[in-house]
Amino acid sequence: MDVIKELEELIGEKIPKIRSIKSGTTGLYSYGYVEDDGHITAMSLRSKGLSTLPQSIENLDHIQRLYLRDNELSTIPECVCHLENLRDLDVFNNKIESIPESIGEIATLERADLSRNFIKTLPDSIGNLGNLKRLGLMDVQLENLPASIGNLKNLWDLAIFINHLTELPESIGRMKGLTRLAAHKNKISEIPDSIGMLSSLKQLSLNENELTTLPESIGELTQLESLRLEGNLLVTLPDSITRLVSLQGLDISKNKFTAFPNGTKSWLEELERKDCRIRMAKRHRSMIDH
Question: Total structural domains in the chain?
Answer without folding.
Answer: 1
